[in-house]
Amino acid sequence: MQKNSYTVVGVMSGTSLDGVDLALLHFHFDSEKWAFEIGVAETIGYNELWVQRLKTAVNFNENELQELNHTYTQLLGNIIRSFIEKHQLENIDAVCSHGHTILHQPQNGFTLQIGNLPELATTCQQKVVCDFRVQDVQLGGQGAPLVPIGDRMLFSDFDYCLNLGGFSNISFEQGGNRIAFDISPVNTVLNFYANQLGLDYDDRGKIAQSGNLNSGLFIALNNLDFYQKPFPKSLGFEYVKEIVLPLMESFAIATEDKMRTFVEHVALQIANALPLKQGKLLITGGGAYSDFLIARTQFYLPEIAITIPEPKILEFKEALIFGLLGVLKLRNEINVLSSVTGAKKNHSSGTIFSIPPTS
Fold first, then answer.
1. What is the model's pTM?
2. What is the DSSP-derived secondary structure letter of residue 72?
3. For 15-41, what is each residue's pLDDT tens digit?
4. Cβ distance 26 to 37 under 8 Å?
């Protein structure tokens, strides 16, 4: 008989490279519904060396990627173990970890999240559930987004769930199915330009707000082929590096103007992604802290009620949902929806690593 209560550590590293999110999570299943509580949670930042390695890894050869995978797995395992020891966490059912996306090419049947090797369980001394995307790609899916099943199970009070991280993605119910897809790059681009100004990010969107909208760049961005494609669809950093940044760099305008124009582009594409322009919209992810981006989104969606939740949900929602995906995998229940990814079937994705017995 399945048990109905689980305590796990959810772990997420996003493409915005702000660090590793870790959260102690309690899940309880009752009356066909999941409830959750977020306990201690924190983000452990990467040092500058790791930020640069993760930024440039898209260009690594196969041997370099293998070495990176091993060293990152050790780093991640030590971060998780330190988090558990620091907060004296006990009776953990599993660590549920996304890893860090380096390559995402579902059109080529390939996706790589580093930090999902068996030694992760050895290093953090916990059962680990990880590597949630590979199986979906093997089944013909996009391998992304994976968060929507959590939106359905944990945040059903909202008509739309929007995440603003390295990329924006949306999920909602349509015709009895959960629909979800990546909308556009967000912080992968905005942080790139903030870095050029010597900053980690654009605090509250103030720099973007100070710039001027460039109509030529705005039109060019909105005309990119990706926005004409039907879902399911997803984005990786390769798209930013090969398509978006070269386009933006072809305009000889101030950095502030590029950021201002890109925020307007993101807001418009969010509005375009919503089939009905009314209802309740939950926004999470680091981009939710950009007052300017939220204001521009509201401008394009005047009849939408936007909710930005309390900080733990805002900052750790992805860690929360990967914790849920891990629990569902432990129960051998569906945790990836084919209506979202385009895979051949719904499935229970992920790999389980137990702690090797000591000799």
1. 0.87
2. H
3. 778 899 999 999 999 988 999 999 999
4. yes
